[in-house]
Amino acid sequence: MNNRINIKKMSTDSYDYLFKILLVGNSGVGKSSILNQFVDKVYHDEYISTIGVDFKIHTLKIDDKTVKLQVWDTAGQERFRTITNSYYRGAHGILLVYDITDRQSFLDISNWQKEIEHHAKSNVIRVLIGNKCDLKRKRQVSEQEGRELANQMLIPFLEASAKANQNVIEAFIKMARKISELEGPLIRSPTQSSVVLIGNPINPTDKGYCC
Fold first, then answer.
1. Within a domain: residue 203?
2. How many domains does the chain fold into?
3. Where do the DSSP E strands lie in 14-134?
């Protein structure tokens, strides 16, 4: 199989797949930083808490297919939990993020997993991310612990650093590949040049879409 991967900005109308991806985890684990690094290639040292939900769109070229990711950054605070619950609906993939310097954020992954089981579709693709791996001296969670938890959850695992741009792109590529495998191949009509999307586009005006 051709494993060419290109990261680039593309027309919002030019894609083969459109996938909805969520970033979940406790407040302060670096979800917004991961998103900003992935889409805008920027990192901000100052911490600004996400209010409710925000999203950005970025496009990957994987195996000659154009994959557009609509990535939602959810607030980790408990008071916003009822707002973010509706955004699990229709998600193709979820990145569960903890901070390797904050053991409680790692322990709380089990709570986020329960949220996913309750609100997301049963076959949603998940990837576990241990963020801030550049802060080695402040580490409270070993890489082995993260890997063991991911093995228990039967999902992929990566340690990443939004600040150092380490494994950020790789996390989204791994997610996109897993979703593409689940969704199946593209189907082209023999009488039309258009593509029938197996990963359905997400449209806020659709009746089945909430908030």
1. no
2. 1
3. 17-24, 53-62, 65-74, 93-99, 125-131
Tell me which amino acid residue 155 is.
Answer: I
Residue 155: helix, strand or coil by DSSP? coil
The candidate with the shortest Cα–Cα distance to 171, out of 55, 2, 58, 14, is 58
From residue 110, how far is each of 13, 60, 70, 106, 121 by CA, in Å?
A: 37, 30, 25, 8, 17
Q: For residue range 7-36, what is the model confidence (pLDDT) as tens digits?
A: 444 444 578 889 999 999 998 999 999 999
In a domain, 202, yes or no: no
Mean pLDDT of 142-160: 97
Q: Residue 207: inside a domain, yes or no?
A: no
Q: Which domain holds residue 76?
A: 5-196
Average pLDDT over residues 130-150: 97
